[in-house]
Amino acid sequence: MAIDPKQKTVFQLVGVVALMGGLAWASVPFYDWFCRVTGFGGTTNVAEVAPEQILEREIKVKFDASKARDMPWEFKPLQHEMTLRIGEEGLAFYEAYNPTDKPVAGQASYNVTPYEAGGFFSKIECFCFTEQVLMPGERVTMPVSFFVDPEIVMDSDAKYTRSITLSYTFYEIDLPEQEQAALSTNNGAINAPVN
User: How do the domains of the chain map onto residue ranges?
Assistant: First the structure.
């Protein structure tokens, strides 16, 4: 049985659309993986502890906060900048507040600028490693501990960096299943925390 040329064209077009959809779906996780491996686009590293070597040279770290258009939280850094020695562990805090009458879950994405410093900026602990759930009226202080790797002074591009900006953007995500289960168990009754 021969396939009509019109049907063949339709099948080819459907195949192209399916292929393009699959590539679009896979591009986000692939790009995320690529940035984490290479430090491209200001993606930072994760470390267990700060290095033993601390240089005399200082570097300024600035802190920035933003949120996606549909994210109802208020979100800000509690300090705008700090100066530390390269290799020294720093501790900064961000604040998030849920002004709504419902629980809201969020996840933070992050990067640093200038981009060439991304591969030398390492976080030890960060609220961005996990999703955050704020109950109605809840306000939280979230820490991030970090350091700038002493290897930065050996890099041909990054060694001239005197200031690094750490930026976070919070996006609303679906509530985790355990939170949804807890809410349905309580018949949706949630008491807003007292601040």
Answer: 1-31, 40-175
**Calpha distance 153→51 (Å, rounded):** 14
Q: Which of 154, 127, 131 is nearest to 143 (CA)?
A: 127
143 residue type, one letter: P
Tens digits of residue pLDDT in 51-84: 788 999 999 999 999 999 999 999 999 999 999 9
The stretches in the chain having pLDDT less than 70 are 1, 22-44, 46-47, 176, 178-195
Report whether 47 contacts 150 (CB < 8 A). no
Q: Give the list of residues 6+ apart from residue 83 with CB closer than 8 angstroms, or none.
A: 58, 59, 60, 61
pTM of the model: 0.69
- What is the pLDDT of the chain when averaged over all its residues? 82
Q: Residue-wise over 25-51: b if at least 16 C-beta within 10 A, else e?
A: eeeeeeeeeebeeebeebbbeebeebb
Distance CA 188, CA 104 (A): 13
Q: What is the DSSP letter of 175?
A: P
Give the three-class secondary structure for 110.
strand
DSSP state of 114: S
Give the CA distances from residue 174 to residues 2, 67, 91, 161, in Å, rounded to whole numbers and listed in that order. 49, 16, 29, 38
| CATH number for the segment(s) 40-175 | 2.60.370.10
